[in-house]
Design goal:
Elements: H1 3-15, H2 23-36, E1 40-44, H3 47-57, E2 65-69, H4 75-82, E3 86-90, H5 101-114, E4 118-124, H6 133-143, E5 146-150, E6 158-159, E7 162-163, E8 170-174, E9 187-191, H7 194-204, H8 227-238, H9 240-258, E10 264-266, E11 273-274, E12 280-284, H10 286-289, H11 293-302, E13 308-309, E14 324-326, H12 329-337, E15 338-341, H13 349-370
Parallel strand pairs: 2-3, 2-4, 3-14, 4-5, 5-8
Antiparallel strand pairs: 1-9, 6-7, 6-11, 8-9, 10-12, 12-15, 13-15
Helix pairs in contact: 1-8, 2-8, 3-4, 5-6, 9-13, 11-13
The structure holds pyridoxal-5'-phosphate (PLP).
Pyridoxal-5'-phosphate binds next to helix 3 and helix 4.
GO molecular function: pyridoxal phosphate binding; transaminase activity
Active site: 179 (proton acceptor)
Modified residues (N6-(pyridoxal phosphate)lysine): 179
Length: 371
């Protein structure tokens, strides 16, 4: 957060628009849609709310099946349960760590042949990198499956010149505190379909109809973003290019310092992609590096440096025990070997170097003790 966010917040505060309605929301939606390259944006209280309403907008009903990347944050799957549908988990591909288009196609085809068609796909753009939408979209179009892009982690990423969030029928973003831009909490749903955006806006405001009294004909939710938070979002959005540039620099610094070590490799950038590098994620191969991912996290923690494992795949979560999974070994390896290194935009080069020193020392200590 900088002075521009503080100024924006005070501007909104002083305007008296302290409700989930007001000029900052309207402007945030317009600027955001323009930035992503879509016609409509609806500002919401969280990325989870955006995904929930996206499923409703796609007509997903109780008992339906929805395919989703297994390697993701739990919200991508939970929303499927919110609408009473069943998640079908799909493994990652090696090239981008995102949903494997081939496995997705096989699952869609198989379910279709069984007479239990998959209604929608939630493809996640993991850690700031777009999934392979050319192949995913072809399959969805062929089988009449609705496509939702969970771009919560990928604002600012691009693929073949188009922005993350613009590839699905609906794109969903998060402005949670740890995201590339934040409103402390918030989200955005984007789409090119005017009627769909209109419905989502209505559902997000308790489905109140435009009458003088309170008239409701559909179930609604309290999912709109506050005008105060929209002002912060606008100031953050204005600095997005700078933020992505810095995240990519941080990634490059990690790679140049740690890349030469044996047994460590970084999330690949698939052809056509420009990752936002929301997080720098490394895989530690214990047999080559000398110690595993957890030992690296422990060593960093001893120096008061926070790092985290990558997402634990949904098919390994007790919450989703018994759910269908197609494949699984790629995401499992990313989970057991993966560490998310400190990646905050405000990190100095020296701070990144300090993290590298600790990781490097862990490797050399183990190399010496193994010798
Ligand atoms: C992939 C993914 N989807 C959905 C969400 C949910 O967003 P929110 O926390 O804003 O509800 C997050 C992060 O929080 C996420 O990383």
């Amino acid at each position: 957060m900088t002075d521009s966010e503080r100024t924006a917040l005070l501007r909104a505060f002083d305007s008296g628009w302290v409700a989930p309605i007001g000029p900052e929301i309207d402007a945030f939606e317009t600027e955001f849609a323009e930035r992503v390259g879509v016609r409509h944006a609806v500002a919401l209280s969280s990325g989870t709310a955006a995904l929930h309403l996206a499923l409703l907008a796609c007509g997903v009903m109780p008992g339906d099946r929805v395919a989703v990347s297994t390697l993701t944050f739990v919200a991508s799957a939970n929303v499927i349960r919110y609408v009473g549908a069943h998640p079908i988990f799909i493994d990652s591909e090696e090239a981008s760590w995102n949903i494997d288009p081939q496995l997705l196609r096989e699952e869609i085809r198989e379910q279709d042949a069984k007479g239990t068609p998959i209604r929608a796909v939630i493809a996640v753009d993991l850690f700031g990198q777009c999934a392979d939408y050319t192949r995913i979209r072809n399959t969805c179009n062929e089988f009449g499956v609705r496509l939702i892009e969970d771009a919560a982690e990928a604002l600012g990423a691009q693929c073949n010149g188009a922005s993350a969030g613009s590839f699905g029928e609906i794109g969903c973003f998060s402005f949670n505190g740890n995201k590339i831009i934040t409103t402390s909490g918030g989200g955005m749903l984007v789409t090119n379909h005017a009627a769909l955006a209109e419905s989502v806006k209505r559902w997000a405001t308790q489905s109140r109809l435009p009458t003088r009294h309170y008239e409701h004909s559909e179930l609604g939710y309290n999912y709109r973003l506050s005008n105060l938070l929209a002002a912060i979002g606008r100031a953050q959005l204005a600095r997005l290019d700078e933020t992505v540039r810095r995240r990519r620099q941080i990634f490059d610094q990690y790679v140049s310092r740690l890349g030469p070590l044996s047994g460590i490799r970084f999330m690949p950038e698939a052809p056509g992609n420009t990752c936002s590098r929301w997080l720098t994620v490394a895989l530690i191969d214990e047999s080559e590096f000398g110690c595993g991912r957890d030992a690296v996290i422990d060593a960093l923690e001893q120096q008061n440096i926070e790092s985290r494992p990558t997402w634990k795949p949904m098919h390994l979560q007790a919450l989703y025990e018994g759910a269908t999974i197609r494949g699984g070994s790629v995401s499992e390896r990313i989970f057991t070997e993966g560490v998310c290194l400190p990646s905050g935009t405000s990190m100095s080069d020296d701070a990144v170097d300090r993290v590298c020193d600790v990781v490097q020392a862990t490797a050399s200590r183990l190399t010496i003790s193994n010798a």
